[in-house]
Specification:
six-stranded parallel β-sheet, binds S-adenosylmethionine, Alpha/beta knot, 189 residues, 2 domains, alpha/beta
């Protein structure tokens, strides 16, 4: 099963930070890639590719101007569409069937008002509580419930840097090329 996140309706400037975070969350929490739509924003695409180059992948980053054709084609190919929206069915009621469908998934998150066609094309409109909040919060919880926490120990390939977990301080090692990075760990007590 592959899982791609489709970010709809990006607005340059206004959504820069949130859209970047959608991509970072998608990568860190187990998605195979992110497809950006709305206004094209090369800086965000580049920043996400750079993160993948540094911290590992695979993680695909692309832009799709015609998100509707993208979704229709995905359906024709047998992929299933999950749309995260406060107006959908509670995640607890649908996550088991999404997990067991064993098909490739497109997970759609909005920015501005999401067009009605997305609600109709979606195989599941999923609410992470029936309260409005954020695409970052809903995506993170959705991925964690789908992968049941296993995404937190996912292996990333071809990383240049890796964080070594520490009780206190920071330790980052360089995996390729040069000598180990300066050990930044320090006791903060
Ligand atoms: N006002 C917009 C609308 O009516 O469609 C929603 C804007 S909201 C800030 C941006 C995105 O966050 C939504 O499109 C949806 O993907 C996600 N989102 C916000 N609250 C959610 C919730 N409770 N459950 C699932 N997704 C949510």
């Amino acid at each position: 099963m592959t899982l791609m996140v489709l970010r709809l309706g990006h607005r340059v400037g206004r959504d820069a930070r949130i859209t970047t975070h959608v991509g970072l969350i998608a990568r860190a929490l187990g998605a195979d890639g992110v497809v950006m739509s709305g206004q094209r924003d090369e800086r965000i695409l580049e920043a996400l590719r750079k993160v993948t180059e540094t911290w590992g992948g695979p993680f695909d980053v692309s832009y799709e101007a015609d998100w509707l054709s993208f979704l229709r084609k995905a359906k024709e190919e047998g992929k299933m569409i999950v749309h995260l929206t406060a107006y959908g069915l509670p995640i607890d009621d649908v996550i088991a069937s999404i997990r067991s469908c064993a098909r490739d998934l497109i997970v759609v998150v909005g920015a501005e008002k999401v067009p009605g066609i997305v609600y109709r094309l979606a195989d599941w409109n999923v609410a992470i509580s029936s309260q409005p909040h954020s695409e970052c919060g809903s995506l993170a919880i959705f991925l964690d419930r789908l992968f049941e926490g296993k995404e937190l120990s996912k292996d990333f390939r071809d990383a240049k840097l890796r964080i070594i977990p520490m009780k206190r301080g920071k330790k980052v090692v360089r995996l390729k090329g040069l000598e180990p990075r300066k050990d930044l760990s320090k006791d903060t007590t």
